[in-house]
Amino acid sequence: MDQAFLGSLEETLKQITSPGTVKAASAKLQSDFYPNPQTLPGLIHLLQNHPDKHIRQLAGVESRKLVARYWEDDQALSQDIKKQIKESLLRSTVAEPEALPRHTSSRVISAIAQLDVDENNWPELMPFLHNGTKSSNASEREVCVYIIYTLLDAGINTLINSTVDVLHLFSQTINDPESQQVRISTVLGLGSISDQIESVTVDQPAEKNPVELFRALIPSMVEVLKQVISSDDDKGISQVFEVFNSLLLCDPALTSKHIGDLVNFMLNNLAAEVSLSEECRIPALQFLLTSVRFKKNKLQSLKLGPMLTVTAMKIIAEGYDEQDDEDDEDTPPLLALRLIDYLSNSLPPSQVLAPLMEALPSYAKSNNPNERRAAFLSINASVEGAPDFVANQINVILPMVVEGLNDSDINVKSGALQALAELASELHEVISDEHEVLLPLVFKVMDTATTLKIGKNACMALDSILEGLDRKVIAEKYLSDLAPKLLQLLSSTQDLQLKSSIVAAISSAAFASGKAYQPYFEPTIHAVEPFVRVTEEMSNDEVALCGITLDALSALAGAVGKEAFSPYVQPLVDASYRCLQSGQSRLRECGFIFLGTLAKHYGSDFSPFLSNVVPEVFKSLKQDEFTGLDDEDDDEDLGIGQDDEDDLLSKLKINSAMATEKEVATDTLGEIIVATKNDFLPYLEEATKNLVELVDHFYEGISRAAVIALWRSFISYYKIGNYPAWTQGFPVQSPLQDPAAALLEVSRKACLELLSGSDERSVTTSICDNFAEALKVAGPVVVGGESELEQLCGELMMILNKTHPSQTMDDDEYEYDGKQEEDNGESSEYDELLTDSATDVVVQLAAALGEKFSPVFNTFFPTLTKYCTSKSSTERASGVGAIAEVVNGLRPACTEWTQSLLDVFMKSLDDKDLEVRSNAAYGVGLLCYYSENVDLIKNNFMSVLQKLQRLLKKVEKKKRKSYGNNGDNEEDSNERGLANACGCVARMTLQYPDLIPMGEVLPVLISRLPLQDGYEENTPVFELLLQLFQQRNETVFGHREDIVNIFDQVFAQQIEADQEELSRTAFANPTVKPFESDELKNKVIELLKYLESEQPGLVTSKPTLQVVLA
């Protein structure tokens, strides 16, 4: 080899290791040496012979890069040179005394082997390695096992095809008596080979079955983990933990037998062991988090939830600095909080919330402030995953929180504020009903706050409470004091995080109070406008404040209306556009959020901004989240220190931010399409293409957002298409026109394809929700043809049977023998949300197809009836409610199932849970109304009336609302249950008036009116009253004064609903009105006119009705 060339190469590498010359030397390496094939032998020579280990290390890294370029080119490197390199590399690698160059040299061997071994161009390698693992020289064993690991990691077919032999080899090396590095490399090799093992159902002897062989090695892998922890081998600890985490993503058969033991070990021996360092505890907790994420079914069947929950609370009670959660640093208590969050989202409340509630009193009453604080932080972490269960425990939880707000310890008070904020966020109605108790306490905390953290958390709690508060309450009781107070606080603090919390509270106050916020609009917008001045040098806190301010401004726009806000639209859109052009994902995200909400409020008036905004949206959607991550292996191989690892993690965080930005941009695109409709048509083709590509995105947030945007776009264009009201039937004879037709076609196709393989629960739920909504709006045309109907129903059946990929991703089919492990049939509330969404699609299919749904119902009915007898009251209510709605869709076509349906409803009318009884009352009323099996209905008529009596009881004001039903709600009735019972009686009376004892039933029915909930049940009730008056029924005429009083209240409800609809923001839910249609309202007005003519003054004595009749 040319010594001058070699000397120049050596000098260049030296310069790369020096910070002052690294840039120029790297460029020289690229331009002068990379194009020359002789650089590869030169680098390998330096790897083998240079005295400086850093130069050897760098030479190895660079030679790896060139192997792929030159190794297979016979003109670049002769066969003799390649043979010499291979032979010398094996010797030099074994002889290398330093670990990092030795590992890098092993990677070079692996790079060559990837090209040669499978082509049988290096037949000496595998025997050399196999013999080397049995060498008496520990260093040689280390090298050979490490190279085998790197070859497995590279996916060499020769090794993959010899999995059983490799596992037998590893069963020896994992117990190496002398070298810990051999044992660690063996674990790494097992991690690599685990990706290649797939469970097989054929019988094989244990010694030839890779699954059994791998399972047998897991206890030894645990022993290696114990050894690296005992020896304080930080790198080994990190490597072995990484393997254990990766096992959770492999074929479930590999770990299913050991999951319980592994979780127990990681939790009790490591995560909860305070004597261990965080370097051991944190990865153990991360393993547990991954276990909950990917092995939740197994954890549930093993009933590990209570142990995980209670131990997590103990870890939280260790206490931590308030600043830790601000710094985004993982600590055992913070990860334990995340574990409770994951558990509550993934496992049934009986395994998480129940043990948590059992432990709460002792924690809340503890003399140790860290334990008191842990109680509230645990509540905060668990509410989102099980809001129904928590709502039913609110009488226990809320007094604790109130006590916590008065606690003398500032950290406990801070925890109570966080719990209150989360409770208010998830349980709007429950918490807002207690505003008279809670808000004064929050105001007191704000007035006496001694730290910024307390002030911030108080503002967060205030923000959440205000968002759910009734408009009249906030306007009449709080706004005049609250708005000036918040503005004064905003001007008096310099802390940006506190400013963000105050701005968020202002936003909620404006959102909740609507036009009542008008007097404070000008001072508010002048106070917050400086926060949206965008520069590239903004800190993270400044970016966060900018985003929250833009969100608040969109709430202000909705509150005060277009006219008042119009002077500020253009400058704020300009500020948002600057955000979109920023180099920071977080700033771009802020800009998208504001523009999306502005479009939602301004509708077609947003169209002038399309030409600037839409290209920025498209640009965001086309970003590649993996940019900059291609060379991560090389970064690790440099081994220059921890900085390289930090750099890689930093890149991952940047790309995570990019994914979040794309999710927000996708949401914004949907908002803009819906807002601007026909004005968006020039961009619709490209937008649709982008959305379809994102539907199966690996990141569930983006996938979900794309699904929602597609279906919302279809519904929007359908609504402006002037199509006639759809009618039941299938197939559809009146096709749609573009753009609605094209959007429907791509949305249906993309979502059906995704649904068949989606393993993300939230994505599957979103697909179901959007199918149901589209069916509700557009009817049977959404279904498509017979094949699409069959495919959709097949997926729905899988979801209802809990065998869909999004429900079974961690099931172990290898052990499956036809019997599921006993888990009491329980589900997490999010799992129940998925099955509930699927039943909603079934319901809407019945509504759209009508009698054509009958053959399909034959398939679904047995599965739905299983829900009606579930141990979960939520599932029972969902099943009974779905069957009731199917009856409403089938109408007379339900007749053939009358007996079976009656059995379901009659049994459910005796259920201990109120919502189940309520849904059964609704269903049996529909069955009596529609079924043509008259004799069967008549035979059960009086039994139905008797079973309704409990639901027909008057509802005390304190019990008018029922929050959730995860614990069985054994109250006699509530407003919803009463409404369904009244509707049932009305339908039964309309269909079989001769069977009803009018003198007994009608006075009871009238005394329960007007309905306060379930306004859709007003329709059969009002139709009954109209019919009875038309027939001049004596009983109803005897109660005409009561009925006039009832309609006086009903029209007051209608007027209030009309006013609310006029003043509500663009973001509020649709207003529910007591009259389902104008036609029904007009019939009632005609009745009132008739009654007034019969008895002058009876109606017009009521001021409200006087206006109605005018």
Automatic annotation (TrEMBL):
Source organism, top-level taxon: Eukaryota
Pfam families referenced in this protein's UniProt entry, alphabetically: HEAT, IBN_N, TPR_IPO5
GO terms for biological process, alphabetical: protein import into nucleus
A GO CC annotation given for this chain: cytoplasm
Chief site of localization: cytoplasm
Keywords for the protein's UniProt record, in alphabetical order: Coiled coil, Cytoplasm, Nucleus, Protein transport, Repeat, Transport
Localisation: Cytoplasm; Nucleus
SUPFAM superfamilies found in the cross-reference section: ARM repeat
Designated name of the protein: Importin N-terminal domain-containing protein
Originating species: Trichomonascus ciferrii
